[in-house]
Design goal:
5-stranded antiparallel beta sheet, single chain
Length: 356
């Protein structure tokens, strides 16, 4: 038996209620000067109404402007060269980068120094027992997370929780030395190696990347560093912003809306390919979805491809008033009559176990 988990932001909110997207939005906007808020409004609608859409535009623009700046010195056409240089002189890419990193810094700040093991254990005691039971019963357990906050790694690896350090892979391998001179000194690097350690029975995939993932733009290579090094080296509030333009390193994370636009490139495409393989594999008997709103079309498309015999367990904290409409939404996506719902959230003591 194989089991597939899909983990959404609701799991993080179950540990820290202040980690909702509106809370992150408000904390980010509160620290911005009026000029930056006005600038963001020019990239979409009111930032207080739809920050995710604006952040999606920030992601597209900063990548496009990076490409323009990179080409400005090698274009043969004088007209194109003049356009590229004019765009470069606006310094717009530097401003977009600063706002992009500032949002990531707010997320790190909300997380505190780290996910505290005692806090997580207390908040997720029953969910951790539920996960451990399914992993013990399965030949292979695959975790697909929509979060970039490192909570799931904490649960899987920490000695006080699931303690799966030697059974799990996230397809990163220790890298000998530093990837290049930019990398913070004395900070270990781990290189993304799709397919590595596939003999391990527990596998973790970040569908939308992670705050700990960093991409070298020139080669599209992806590396990660440990959460404590992200903070200790001040990666988001100093090290990334200090790069000369065009910036050679960028976070490998999707923070805005319209995530499907970036999900077709590495490292995200590898995770999505494995997600689709998992739910269509006849050996995957159970799909467990926790804390996901079923509002992302590109995720829903994969969920809808699940094979006919797949048993679905959907865990989400829903108010009584929403307990009729939410299942309708879910069943429209899953197109299955083998779905059970658990509305008390991740820490419901009655979450199902194997054989039940």
């Amino acid at each position: 038996m194989n089991v597939c988990f899909l983990v959404g932001n609701g799991l993080s909110v179950a540990v820290r209620p202040g980690f909702t997207l509106p809370s992150l939005r408000d904390a980010f906007l509160a620290q911005l000067p009026d000029a930056d808020r006005a600038f963001l409004a020019q990239l979409g609608t009111d930032p207080a109404e739809d920050l995710e859409e604006i952040l999606a535009n920030v992601e597209v623009l900063r990548d496009s402007l990076h490409a323009v700046r990179s080409l400005s010195g090698v274009l043969a056409s004088p007209d194109l060269q003049a356009i590229a240089q004019a765009v470069t002189q606006t310094q717009l890419d530097a401003r977009l980068d600063r706002l992009y990193y500032a949002y990531c810094s707010v997320v790190l700040e909300r997380l505190g120094e780290a996910w505290n093991p005692g806090e997580v254990q207390h908040r997720l005691e029953h969910w951790l027992d539920h996960v451990a039971a399914w992993i013990d019963a399965a030949d292979q357990a695959e975790f697909f997370t929509l979060n970039f906050d490192l909570l799931l790694e904490h649960c899987l690896l920490n000695d006080e929780m699931l303690n799966l350090r030697y059974e799990m892979t996230d397809f990163f391998q220790p890298y000998d030395g530093a990837p290049d001179a930019w990398w913070p000194p004395n900070v270990p690097a781990y290189e993304f190696a799709p397919g590595a350690a596939t003999e391990r029975p527990v596998r973790l995939y970040h569908l939308h990347g992670s705050l700990a993932y960093l991409m070298r733009r020139a080669t599209s290579e992806v590396f990660k560093m440990r959460a404590e090094d992200l903070r200790g080296a001040h990666v988001y509030d100093h090290h990334l912003p200090a790069q000369a333009l065009p910036a050679s390193w960028t976070p490998a994370v999707i923070i805005g809306g319209r995530k499907e636009r970036k999900a077709t490139s590495l490292p995200y495409s590898f995770a999505f390919d494995q997600f689709r393989r998992s739910v269509t594999d006849p050996d995957t008997n159970v799909g467990i979805v926790v804390g996901y709103s079923f509002n992302d079309p590109h995720i829903n498309t994969v969920l809808a491809s699940g094979h006919d015999d797949l048993r679905w367990i959907v865990i989400d904290h829903q108010a009584p008033a929403d307990q009729a409409t939410f299942p309708e939404q879910v069943l429209t996506v899953l197109q299955s009559d083998n779905v059970s719902f658990h509305f008390e959230g991740a820490n419901d003591p009655d979450l199902p176990r194997p054989g039940v």
